[in-house]
Write a structure and sequence with these properties.
- The complex is a heterodimer of chains A (159) and B (788).
- Chain A is an alpha+beta fold and 159 residues long.
- Chain A has helices at 23-30, 86-93, 103-116, 122-128, 140-158; strands spanning 2-8, 11-17, 49-52, 55-58, 71-73.
- Chain A has 2 domains: 2-77, Beta-grasp domain (Ubiquitin-like (UB roll), Roll), CATH 3.10.20.30; 86-158, DNA polymerase, domain 1 (Orthogonal Bundle), CATH 1.10.150.
- Chain A has 5 helices and 5 strands, in the order E-E-H-E-E-E-H-H-H-H.
- Chain B has 788 residues and is an alpha+beta fold.
- Chain B has 3 domains: 31-138 and 201-254 and 259-292, Aldehyde oxidase/xanthine dehydrogenase, a/b hammerhead (Aldehyde Oxidoreductase, domain 3, Alpha-Beta Complex); 295-469 and 635-786, 2-Layer Sandwich (Aldehyde Oxidoreductase, domain 4); 485-631, Aldehyde oxidase/xanthine dehydrogenase, molybdopterin binding domain (Aldehyde Oxidoreductase, domain 4).
- Helix content of chain B is 27%, strand content 23%.
- The chains are: A alpha+beta (159), B alpha+beta (788).
- Chains A and B meet through helix 2, helix 3, helix 4 and helix 5 of A and helix 1 and helix 17 of B.
- Bound molecules: FE2/S2 (inorganic) cluster (FES) (2 copies).
- Residues 24, 38-40, 43-48, 58, 60 of chain A line the site of one FE2/S2 (inorganic) cluster (FES).
Chain lengths: 159, 788
């Protein structure tokens, strides 16, 4: 067993884990951050995307101990104090989710994309979401939501 | 001005807030104190005789509480089938037992053999690997045609691999044969509807819990219909009466049919919790989902269409082999029969139709309803053969369809395959389609593609579906073993807020938003004054759940009926308060008024009076304001539409790109246009997935080759174009109070033939003599067709 300590959404959380425990499992089972979802066992679906050390990663591709001491941001950390964050709000406004299962991973990927590329084209958005599967929405409204955030941020910056 | 609340408004979804903040409560998010975990030992071979299962070593491993095998389930019921089909020879279908854990034989890769329950998930998995299974492998029965030779049997006691041979409508057969024999032209097409895996993004989960003090079992499960699970598992498998069994389906991450059925793992966890006196949890891995969730489609068909010299359809004859897999899943026999044969008339006035379906057992995962269920298979055959006929006869495919449409004056229209379409206007949706997909600009886009070295094609398609499932007396005659009504309770609270309790279940459809929209209109109160409770048999009325695009058409109708009872009672209370006769009370915008006067009382005052009945006609009227309705539909509903798609094909590689897709649907009245658009988007994406990418492939030994997301090609964001969807053509349903038809499955039904028609069109325009390619239209298949 190993002792692992993470800074999750600004809070220090820790637990004892077996070496084989994945970060995704550690977050869900030990730290009870169940917003991060597990949709596959081959690292293909993206439901588990979180930010580790500022980068988007599929949390099922890392062992919990590999993240020891790192800052982790999950979907639970994406809202502002008493309102949704801008990406979350855009997802609601554009009906970019149905069952909600892929949504945490989608939002975390979208946030990382907009950090890397504040003004992505539709094609760039679709390309970036290669690693995130959604079975419900057909992706169109997800693309629309992400584009609307880019536009809002741009006009806010211009103002 | 679009409405901003109530029916017809694109109200934002309230459920989104919890899903967007990570506070959804999916089944795997639930942990019951003291829970143990189960890991299943599953068959690695497709077909085999089970000689022995050695559990001693596993039982002694750390944390293991008990190892269960088939022997523990002797005398326990197997998984039941909810539908019985009668064979052409008058006999009932073959209905072999479906044990919870294998007994004597294994019949598909993934068939559960043993179950290890341990204190931790890791311990359960480790110990499962130590269970020694001795299986004598038998030749796998896979191909449906050869299965019918009965050389190897999936179920010895059935004596055959033929589950049933079904003719519909048997009395039409001679007339159809004669009409085809005398037809000016007969177009014949043989085609396969590829086997699919539903792949809801949330894998299945079950948690069984048992309270010995009250003798109540609780099952938390990823289900589209908790009451159906309670009925099937309680009555047929574990013999637990309803009042001792609670089934909870909390937030569910998509279903698409695959979460309708009662699965072995649900019964196992409930059973084991009673045996071990501790909660037992199972969470599927995705690999497990691939070999245990019911698959979809998998039909092999031949269709013949007879036409006269003017292009009028005279007769249709089809023969289909439908794969049932190794066992009969809950709805399986209904899919290729009453959800498929009945739809073979499509949008057309073909006078003679005969459908034959042979359902076949094979050593594969059970096959059952997947989004559309039977209707996509019918539409695919019909719309592909019409397209082929048009090309053979040199008639424009759109014109051939228009010529044979049922005219809008002909409704209600009785088809030769037992349905009575209540309403529709197929020419109107085709006109709308021509407009939104800019048929006229196609030639110039074609030139553009040519300049880029690409082939371009335009595919058009129509569909009709029967949904709003279903009139109980009718489906009872057709073999259903349950009713298909729906229920709603409207509980008006003392301060005027309202709680809806419904038997439907939302797993992405947005019921928490749309059901309140309906009541907001009826009661004249804000949507935020109303909430919805669903998914728990302990606090919702018995209902049949969500599938078959039935929730708003059947559940919404129950809601309206219950609300009407509320209004009738509330008027009596208002009449008492205003010392008037109830007949004189009018109710609008949340105010009860005495007709022709300025006397009125508000909704809130009436609600409060109902619960604080100090000034109340107690001798005539009970206090309280709560009503329940069970609604059984008079008929199916018939959404219909016309779809178009443009593809570009790279002739060197066979790669197909869907570059444009438009859908003109008639869903009748629409409660929330934003949500309806989303449903159509999702359905079309699944249909494009089926047409171009998805395929559950078994190898010769019965191993599922495409058993993970590495091989099973799910549509990703850059596989789907921007979709133009329109549902402004509306012929309201004539027999339900909201005039709604349902929209959940349309996209998945209408899109696969549209894509295939477009690819064939592209190849033919490019000068290649190709009249059909089976789905999925992978680059290899298209390239092979191009290169003969
Ligand atoms: S769970 Fe991590 S990619 Fe699927
Ligand atoms: S919203 Fe259901 S999988 Fe994306």
């Amino acid at each position: 067993m190993e002792f692992v300590e993470l800074i999750v959404n600004g809070r220090t959380l820790s637990g004892e884990v077996e070496g084989r425990k994945l970060l995704s499992e550690f977050l869900r089972e030990d730290l009870r951050c169940t917003g991060t979802h597990i949709g596959c066992d081959t690292s293909q679906c993206g439901a588990c995307v979180v930010h580790v050390g500022g980068k988007a990663v599929k949390s099922c591709t890392m062992f919990a101990w590999e993240a020891d001491g790192m800052e982790v941001v999950t979907i639970e950390g994406m809202a502002d104090e008493d309102s949704l964050g801008d990406i979350q709000q855009a997802f609601q406004d554009n009906h970019a989710l149905q069952c909600g299962f892929c949504t945490p991973g989608m939002v975390m990927s979208a946030a990382a994309l907009l950090d890397e590329n504040p003004d992505p084209s539709d094609a760039e958005i679709r390309d970036y979401l290669e690693g995130n599967l959604c079975r419900c929405t057909g992706y169109q409204n997800i693309v629309k939501a992400i584009r609307s955030v880019a536009e809002q941020r741009e006009s806010a910056a211009a103002a | 001005m679009p409405k901003d609340y109530g029916i017809g408004a694109s109200s934002k979804r309230r459920e989104d807030v919890r899903f967007l903040t990570g506070s959804g409560r999916y089944t795997d998010d639930i942990n019951v104190p003291g829970q143990a975990f189960v890991s299943f030992v599953r068959s690695e071979v497709a077909h085999g005789k089970l000689n022995s299962v050695e559990t001693e070593e596993a039982s002694a491993m750390p944390g293991v509480l008990r190892v269960f095998t088939g022997a523990d389930f002797e005398g326990v019921g197997g998984l039941p089938c909810g539908w019985q089909i009668t064979d052409r020879n008058g006999e009932p279908m073959k209905e072999p037992a479906h044990p919870i854990l294998a007994q004597g034989k294994v019949r598909h890769v993934g068939d559960p053999i043993a179950a290890v329950v341990a204190e931790s998930e890791a311990q359960a998995r480790d110990a499962a690997e130590a269970v020694a299974v001795d299986v004598q492998e038998l030749p796998a029965v896979l191909d449906m045609k050869s299965a019918l030779e009965d050389e190897g049997l999936v179920h010895e006691d059935a004596g055959t691999n033929l589950c049933f041979d079904w003719g519909f409508v048997e009395d039409n057969k001679d007339a159809v044969d004669a009409a085809l024999a005398g037809a000016h032209h007969v177009t014949t097409l043989e085609l396969t509807n590829n086997r699919l895996v539903a792949n809801a993004m949330e894998p299945r989960v079950a948690i069984g819990d048992y309270d010995a003090a009250t003798d109540v079992s609780t099952l938390f499960t990823t289900s589209q219909n908790p009451h159906v699970i309670r009925l099937l598992m309680g009555a047929f498998v574990l013999s637990i009466p309803e009042h001792k069994l609670r089934v909870v389906a909390p937030d569910v991450g998509g279903g698409f049919g695959s979460k309708i059925y009662h699965y072995a793992e649900e019964a196992f966890c409930t059973f084991a919790a009673r045996q071990l006196l501790c909660p037992v949890k199972w969470t599927a891995t995705r690999s497990e989902s691939f070999v245990t969730d019911a698959h979809g489609r998998d039909h092999v068909s031949k269709i013949e269409l007879g036409l006269d010299e003017d292009g009028n359809f005279l007769a249709i004859r089809t023969a289909t082999l439908a794969n049932m897999g190794a066992y009969l899943s809950t709805f399986a026999p209904a899919v290729p029969t009453y959800l498929h044969g009945t739809l073979m008339a499509g949008n057309y006035k073909t006078p003679n139709i005969y459908v034959n379906v042979k359902a076949v057992f094979t050593n594969t995962v059970p096959v059952d309803a997947y989004r559309g269920a039977g209707r996509p298979e019918a539409t695919f055959q019909l719309e592909r053969v019409i397209d082929k006929a048009a090309r053979e006869l040199g008639i424009d495919p759109v014109e051939l369809r228009r010529k044979n449409f049922i005219d809008k004056e002909q409704f209600p229209y009785a088809t030769p395959v037992a349905l009575q379409y209540d309403t529709g206007d197929y020419a109107a949706t085709m006109d709308k389609l021509a407009e939104i997909s800019d048929f006229e600009g196609f030639e110039s886009r074609l030139e553009e593609s040519k300049r880029n070295g690409k082939l371009r094609g335009l595919g058009v398609n129509c569909y009709i579906e029967a949904c709003g499932i279903a009139p109980s007396n009718l489906v009872g005659q057709l073999g259903a073993r349950a009713g298909l009504y729906e229920s709603a309770t409207v509980r008006v609270n003392a301060t005027g807020s309202v709680t809806i309790l419904t038997g439907t279940h939302s797993h992405g459809q947005g019921h928490e938003t749309t059901f309140p929209q309906v009541l907001a209109d009826m009661f004249g109160i804000g949507e935020d004054q109303i909430n919805l409770v669903h998914g728990d048999t302990a606090n919702t009325p018995m209902g049949m759940g969500t599938y078959g695009s039935r929730s708003i058409a059947v559940g919404g109708a129950a809601l309206v009926r219950a609300a009407e009872k509320i209004i009738a009672k509330a008027k009596k209370i208002a009449a008492h308060l205003m010392e008037a006769s109830a007949d004189d009370i009018e109710f609008a915008d949340g105010q009860f008024t005495v007709a022709g006067t300025d006397k009125s009382v508000a909704w809130g005052d009436v609600c409060l009076t109902a619960y604080v009945p100090h000034n109340y006609p107690l001798e005539e009227l009970e206090p309280g304001l709560e009503e329940t309705s069970f609604y059984d539909p008079a008929n199916f509903t018939f959404p219909a539409g016309a779809y178009a798609c443009e593809v570009e094909v790279e002739p060197e590689t066979g790669k197909v790109d869907v570059v444009a897709f438009s859908a003109a649907d008639d869903f009748g009245n629409v409660i929330n246009p934003m949500i309806v658009d989303g449903q159509v988007h999702g359905g079309i994406a699944q249909g494009i997935g089926q047409a171009l990418r998805e395929h559950a492939v078994y190898d010769d030994g019965g191993q599922l080759v495409s058993g993970s997301y590495m091989e099973y090609a799910m549509p990703r964001a850059d596989d789907i174009p921007d979709l133009a969807v329109d549902h402004s053509c509306q012929t309201p349903c004539t027999h339900n109070p909201l005039g709604v038809k349902g929209c959940g499955e349309a996209g998945a039904i209408g899109s696969p033939p549209t894509v295939v028609n477009a690819v064939v069109d592209a190849l033919q325009r490019g000068g290649y003599d190709v009249d059909h390619i089976d789905m999925p239209l992978s680059p290899f298949r298209v390239w092979s067709a191009i290169n003969g």
